[in-house]
Amino acid sequence: MNNKPRIKELYEEVVAKNLIEKFSLKNFHQAPRLEKIVINIGLSEAKDNVKVVDVASAELAAITGQKPQVRKAKKAISNFKLRAGMPIGLKVTLRGTKMYEFFDRLVNVAIPRIRDFRGIEPNSFDGKGNYNIGLSEQYIFPEINVEKSDKTRGMNITIVTSATNDEQARELLDQLGMPFKKR
């Protein structure tokens, strides 16, 4: 039985060959590929109510299929009423099969559910082939039950690729189905 994710199959059979041809690379291993996807949620309200961490953690676990890591403040900042060691965020790093499954759901299910969607900004690359997306609400994922959720939370999704420059990374994501705005 073939349990390989759809996006990984697409990459191996079609996209990698196209990238090798387009950028005149010497072999399959030089073709840019997805390395990991990192999802971060900032929880500034956790300093007043610690239960927020549990609710947000359960939602992020439902979205990604992996238990998030609770990130704690490194330093105390009195202006923000923040003490060192207080939970202030959640982080999940996806690799392998979970990464491809999440990317598939993000591109084909979640992003099209964004209100007034006209495409993802094509200029959010960092210069080294990594792409950042900021989402304003977690409700675009079908795994989240709006009635049980207490609050709208945004998240930052970083897609890390093995591409050496932004042009290669943009071409990789475009061929994997990322809906970029047309120029």
Topology:
Elements: H1 6-22, E1 34-42, H2 51-64, E2 69-72, E3 87-94, H3 96-110, E4 131-135, E5 155-161, H4 166-175
Antiparallel strand pairs: 1-3, 1-5, 2-3, 4-5
Please characterize this protein's 3D structure.
This protein has 183 residues and is an alpha+beta fold. The chain has a domain at 6-43 and 89-175: Ribosomal protein L5 (50s Ribosomal Protein L5, Chain: A), CATH 3.30.1440. 31% of the residues lie in helices and 18% in strands. Strands 2-3-1-5-4 form a five-stranded antiparallel sheet. It starts with 5 loop residues before the first helix and ends in an 8-residue tail after the last helix. The model has no long low-confidence stretch (mean pLDDT 87).
Strand content: 15-25%
Q: Counting H and I runs of at least 4 residues, what is the number of helices? A: 4
What would the average pLDDT be, to the nearest integer? Answer: 87
Percentage of residues in helical conformation: 25-40%
Under CATH, the topology of the domain at 6-43 and 89-175 can be stated as 50s Ribosomal Protein L5, Chain: A
Major beta sheet summary: 5 strands, antiparallel
Assigned CATH superfamily of the domain at 6-43 and 89-175 = Ribosomal protein L5
The helix/strand class is alpha+beta
Model regions low in confidence, pLDDT < 50 over at least 5 residues: none
Biggest sheet, spatial arrangement of strands = 2-3-1-5-4
Q: Report the oligomer.
A: single chain
**Radius of gyration over all CA atoms, rounded:** 18 Å
Number of strands: 5
Distance between the termini: 42 Å
What is the element string, with H for helices and E for strands?
Answer: HEHEEHEEH
CATH architecture of the domain at 6-43 and 89-175: 2-Layer Sandwich
Top-tier CATH class of the domain at 6-43 and 89-175:
Alpha Beta
The dominant shape is elongated
